[in-house]
Amino acid sequence: MGKLKMDVDMYVKSHRNTLGVYLYLRRKDLGLKLREVAALSGLNMNTLSRLETGAHTNPSYDTLLRVANALQLDVDLVPRETEDES
Predict the structure, then answer these.
(1) Where are the domains of the chain?
(2) Is the pLDDT of residue 85 over 80?
(3) I need a labelling partner for 28 at 20 to 30 A (CA). Which of 20, 38, 40, 61 fits?
(4) From CA 47, how far away is CA 56, in angstroms rounded?
(5) Residue 16: what are its φ and ψ, rounded to 5°?
(6) Are the beta carbons of 59 and 51 closer than 8 angstroms?
(7) DSSP characters over 39-73
(8) Residues 60-66: contacts with CB under 8 Å, at least 24 apart
(9) CATH 3.30.565.10 fits 3-85, yes or no
(10) pLDDT digits (tens, 9 = 90+) for 13-70
C-alpha cells in the first residue's frame, strides 16, 4: 500500500467531518498543497486547515465558494454537514 493511500485512510478514520474529509481528499487528488489552495482561493492556510480538520464546521457560503473554485468543484455539490448531523 502506498504512503498516500495510508495517509488518506488514516485521515478519513480520524475525522468525522464530512466537509473536511471531502476537501482534503479533493486537494490530495489534485496534488495540491494547502498553501497552493490558499493562493488559489484567497483564504489563509489556517482557515483551510480548520475546514479540513473539522475545527471550522460552519463556513460562510463565500468561503465554500472560494474553496470549491480553487478545488475545481461545484459548490452546490460540496457537503456541508458532519456525519453526526446527517
Answers:
(1) 3-85
(2) no
(3) 61
(4) 8
(5) -100, 0
(6) yes
(7) HHHT--HHHHHHHHHTS-----HHHHHHHHHHTT-
(8) 66/41, 66/42
(9) no
(10) 555 668 888 899 999 999 999 999 999 999 999 999 999 988 888 899 999 999 999 9
